[in-house]
Amino acid sequence: DPMRAQILPLIFLAFGLPLIAKSGDVLAQYESGPARSDGMSELSRELLLGAQPEDADGHSSRVELGSKTKRDEIKVHGELGRGITVDTGDQFSLRLGARVGLRYELSSTFDSESQAHELEHRPSVSNLRLVLGGHALTRSLTYRIQLNLSPLHLRGGQNSPVFDAYMNYQFSEARGLRFGQFFVPFNRLRTISDYALQLGSRSIAVREFSLHRDLGVRLEANQLFGKDSPLTLQLGAFAGDGTQDHVWKKPGALLTSRLELRPFGAFDDSIDGDLSRRKQPALALGAAFAANLNA
């Protein structure tokens, strides 16, 4: 592509040359310093000992786990179950995580001709996800990208590993707007992530009578009528093509709404099970509506 060939050098000139110039300044600063009795420059000695050179202002460029630099205030830390997070403050953060699920299935079928049982098995990587997320510009604006690398989930002619690609803006603690590709808010058991399921897989009914991911926008209002309100409302408008949004077709839309009632108070119902053994009872009731308009 001639246009791509012209753009790539411009990108390199814009971002690559300043980095090269900065690296050259640091090298020149240390190689021009006084020689040591052991014949090693200060830069070579620090690199050999695992240290990082300092810039002209005396700031170290090394970023340790759980620490932050004096100038840029970059925090890098890792946590089991949440991955590795790089946080520069209110402007930007990046969290990188992954999860894998292995499954072994054994099936026994009866062959009427041979009058014997035949065994079949299927070992597989049932889930392999790469997740990137964080915030940008403000902590109220978050993003999430989830890639599926397991062939078991590439069904229905889907050839893209992109599962989630969306941004979410929180107007307040109880009001939020999400846009991009994500789960359609229709069926509670479908929107629960697979790692949070109580059983090994979802039921057949969930797969038959629920909506999958789609490209669109969703408005969510928790505690609809105030702080103690037990109602939650979600309104969504989607393209209606699912993950096959690359196909040309006539315009259409998928409109959804979901109303939830939590009579005993708010709780985290995104996990299918009570692993924390809560002391207070919890109940969530929901009703959903979806209309497919030429989609």
List the helices and strands and how they pair.
Blueprint: H1 2-31, H2 42-48, E1 75-79, E2 83-87, E3 93-111, E4 116-136, E5 138-148, E6 162-170, E7 175-183, H3 188-191, H4 204-208, E8 213-221, E9 231-238, E10 253-261, E11 285-293
Antiparallel strand pairs: 1-2, 2-3, 3-4, 4-5, 5-6, 6-7, 7-8, 8-9, 9-10, 10-11
Describe this entry's structure for a reader.
With 295 residues, this protein is of the alpha+beta class. The chain is 16% helix and 39% strand. The chain has four helices and eleven strands, in the order H-H-E-E-E-E-E-E-E-H-H-E-E-E-E. The protein has helices at residues 2-31, 42-48, 188-191, 204-208; strands at residues 75-79, 83-87, 93-111, 116-136, 138-148, 162-170, 175-183, 213-221, 231-238, 253-261, 285-293. Strands 1-2-3-4-5-6-7-8-9-10-11 form an eleven-stranded antiparallel sheet. It is globular, with a radius of gyration of 26 Å.
List keywords for this structure.
alpha+beta; globular; 11-stranded antiparallel sheet; disordered N terminus; 4 helices; 295 residues; 11 strands
* Overall outline: globular
Question: What is the CA-based Rg, rounded?
Answer: 26 Å
Give me the side-by-side strand order of the main sheet. 1-2-3-4-5-6-7-8-9-10-11
Low-confidence stretches: 1-70
Q: Look at the structure and give the mean pLDDT.
A: 75
Give the % helix.
10-25%
N to C succession of SSEs: HHEEEEEEEHHEEEE
* Strand residues, percent: 35-45%
Q: Profile the largest sheet.
A: 11 strands, antiparallel
- Quantity of strands, as a count: 11
Ends apart, CA distance between termini: 33 Å
Please tally the helical runs, counting DSSP H or I stretches of 4 or more residues: 4
Which structural class is indicated by helix and strand composition?
alpha+beta
